[in-house]
Specification:
Protein name: DNA/RNA non-specific endonuclease
Keywords: Endonuclease, Hydrolase, Nuclease
GO molecular function: endonuclease activity
Strand content: 15-25%
Order of helices and strands: HHEEEEHEHEEEEE
Pfam families: Endonuclea_NS_2
InterPro entries: DNA/RNA_non-sp_Endonuclease_sf, Endonuclea_NS_2
Number of helices: 4
Helix content: 25-40%
Length: about 300
């Protein structure tokens, strides 16, 4: 009995000792685990800080290289440049549309008015180098009036000297109310069937999309000198010229108030460049732009 009691006491001591060891182990392990976790977190923060510093050091170097200009790789820079060009072109288009809807005041006795410092309002896309010539005419509107005419001119588009010209007598553009004023108008007849893009530049003769009613003074003294200038420049310099003519109609008037003419030579970066407004009027004659009727002043 006595031996059995001693054995129980011994077992109790061993159980107590084992419990103390387990508690100590758990306590030390928890402390170590917490220490390791804190060390790992501290190391991660250090790594982030290091990467952050490396990034800004690299960025500063690139910014210094570009002298304050934001740094782009080739692809992003190209996209950025293209976007900026597109925005600039959109601004030019809006400016051109707003300006070319206006009937400008041209001093009496002047055949034309220089516009925008004589700088045409072509976009960068308009002036891209191209080898193939072309011409484009707006469709007639609801009142059968002509619209803007565009072209890329060169010698291959110009008619040969021996080409015969078709008759225009069957074409009657809007506002065609022909009158004779002998002694007041050269040749006596008030109106001409005037080409938006001159015949000598494209060979277009009886194209109804290219003809408007205009006075003798407008045609001979206004448009013709610029058309001849462009034709001579092409022949003498073998260049392409971006060309545009925009008629101005106010409201539902059938007779154009005038036209804007623009030209720009491509290969020599605008050695030929002009932007003018030519009023559709005749000295000594009052014009009714509503229908093209007229009378002496």
């Amino acid at each position: 009995m006595k031996k059995h009691r001693q054995k129980l006491q011994t077992n109790g001591l061993w159980s107590l000792l084992i419990c103390l060891v387990v508690i100590l182990f758990l306590s030390v392990g928890s402390s170590l685990a917490q220490q390791i976790t804190e060390e790992e977190l501290t190391t991660s923060d250090d790594q982030v800080e290091s990467l952050y510093q490396d990034f800004w050091a690299q960025f500063s170097q690139e910014e210094e290289k570009s002298k304050g200009v934001p740094y782009f790789n080739s692809s992003s820079k190209q996209a950025f440049t293209s976007d900026k060009a597109s925005q600039a072109d959109q601004k030019i288009i809006k400016q051109e549309q707003a300006l070319h809807s206006q009937d400008l005041e041209v001093p009496a006795g002047d055949d034309y008015q220089v516009v925008n410092g004589n700088v045409p309002l072509f976009t960068s896309k308009d002036l891209e180098s191209q080898q193939n010539t072309w011409e484009a005419y707006s469709p007639l509107d609801d009142l059968n009036r002509v619209g803007q005419a565009n072209a890329l001119l060169a010698s291959d588009l110009m008619p040969a000297d021996e080409d015969s010209r078709d008759s225009l007598s069957h074409v009657e553009p809007t506002g065609w109310r022909q009158m004779r004023y002998p002694g007041q108008v050269e040749g006596s007849w008030l109106y001409n069937r005037s080409h938006l893009i001159g015949y000598q530049l494209t060979g277009q003769q009886a194209n109804v999309l290219n003809l408007l009613t205009a006075t003798r003074a407008f045609n001979v003294d206004g448009m013709l000198p610029f058309e001849n200038y462009v034709a001579a420049y092409i022949e003498n310099n073998d260049v392409h010229i971006r060309y545009r003519v925009t008629p101005v109609f106010i409201g539902d008037e059938l007779l154009a108030r005038g036209v804007y003419m623009e030209g720009y030579s491509i290969e020599d970066d605008g050695q030929l460049a002009f932007h003018v407004y030519i009023p559709n009027r005749q000295p000594g004659i009052h014009l009714n732009y509503k229908d093209g009727s007229s009378h002496l002043e």
